[in-house]
Amino acid sequence: MKFIAAALTLAAVASAQIQLSDPTEGTVWKVGVAQYVRWTGNCAAMGAAGKAVTVEVINGPAGNVKFIANIGTIDCTSTTNTSTSLTVPPQTNNGPFESGTYALRVNADPIQYTTNFIINNPDAPAASAGATATTPSTTEPTTKPSSANALMAGSALAMAALAVVQLVL
Ligand SMILES: *[C@@H]1O[C@H](CO)[C@@H](O)[C@H](O)[C@H]1NC(C)=O
Question: What are phi and psi of 164, to 5 degrees?
Answer without folding.
Answer: -65, -45
